[in-house]
Every structure is written in C-alpha cells, then in structure tokens.
Amino acid sequence: MKILKLLSLLCVLFLCTAQSHAQQQVNRVYRMDSRSPDEIFRSAGGGFSPRGTNDNIAEHIQEYSDAGHRAAASAFISTTVNQEVAIAWGVGFQDGETFYVYDIRPTFRFYSVVLSLQRLYAQTGNRNYLRLIRVYEDQAEYVALGGISVTQIHGAQAFLYDESSGSYIEGSYILNNLYQDAETTANVSPYTPRSQLPTEIITPETYCALNLTLPRYRVRLTASTHKYPFLSKSRQCHDSLLTIAYLYTSFF
Q1: One Pfam family name from the record (predicted)?
Q2: Which of 29, 51, 165, 247 has a beta carbon 3.0–4.6 Å from 73's, enabling a disulfide?
Q3: Which domains, ranges and CATH numbers included, belong to the chain?
C-alpha cells in the first residue's frame, strides 16, 4: 500500500510539473464586485487590496480565515479566467443590485488555484486537496497575491437588473483612465506558500457547518447555476447562513 501511495504521489507530482510547463499563458482575468468603478478606479486607495497576510490557498478558496486579524486573513484576491463564472457570481448573489465584472491584466503574482492545490497534494499526500480541486476547479480561479493595482484594471462591465424581465442585462462598459497597458501574464507555476504547510484542511463538506458557529456568518460568494453545479452547495450553505443570521437577530 505504501508503494502504491508513493507511486500515486510521484504521478501527481509529474503531472503537476508537466502541466506547469504546458500551462497556457493567461493575459486576462475577471473579477465580480459590487463596488462601483468610482471606488475602484481611484489613484489613492483604488484597485483591490487583500485583508491580510495569510497565504494558505486552501483556506482562501473556502473563505475560512479571520478578517479581524491581519495575520489570519487572506493575502489573496480572487479572479477567474472564465468571464461567465464572474457573471454567474453576480447574478446568483446580488439579488437585484447592480454589479460589475472587472477586466484585469494579470502579472506573475497571479497563480492558478488548481495547479497550486495539485502541488500541495503532491507534497503532502493529503487527499482533501483533491476534494477541493473537484469542488472548485470549474471556477478556473487565479489568485492575486498581495492585491491588484488600479493600473492593471482595464475597465468594468456593469450589469443592471431589469425588473420587467426579472433578469440581469449588460449596462455600459466603463474604461479605467489609470490603466497602464503592458504585456504581462499570470504565473505558469503553482504558488508555494511562505508559511509551513497546513496540518489539516477545512473540507467543503464541513465548511458550512463550521460557519454556523461563527458570529459573522461569512460565506464565499458563489452562484448557483445549472452550468456550474459545483456552486449549488455553496448557495445552499449561503442561504442556510442567512436564515440562521435572521433568526439570531430576531430572537436573541
């Protein structure tokens, strides 16, 4: 059994290395955000900044970090190479409010989540990393370490809720006057954490239950769609947390 496990890890490490070399260059990523370009496209305090310095990718993608403590809060900003995923995020969670999909030029500080989780599995043999990959791989997520400068954001596509049709429609595309054009791409290698490897991982199956005990009732903003079935569990979890929060504020 140990030999089989070792061979399995060697295969994953080989595939991970081969994939990093064969990784297509990513020169455009997207991020859904409810904040308007008036706030994001500012020379002072603009762009997207992380809440902390925690570079644990497994915790980041599950939003299992303490935003109240900088050392525990995530050091990453989420983006996706799939524009449809970013739009689905907004459609599923904005509940009629306007949202924006920001068009971003990535740099070497952007890393593939799937590739990074594959590397962590190869290093540790912890199969929970494989579970995370299965749940989140369709998000096609790239994380930006340390934030995203306003000069990397090309513009923002607005999405407005149309009450007559009960659906979202495209609004105007707002250009960012502070954008600086350059030929940059995301990193083709997996992210190697500065901190020690985690000894345990919060799995997708237990994350929602754990959140029910947290006073902030935070959950990762993902949308439930038929096209992206991996999001349905997160939406159900999100709805459960909202119900708990309502009951808590109403009766306690």
Answers
A1: Enterotoxin_a
A2: 51
A3: 2-197 (3.90.210.10)
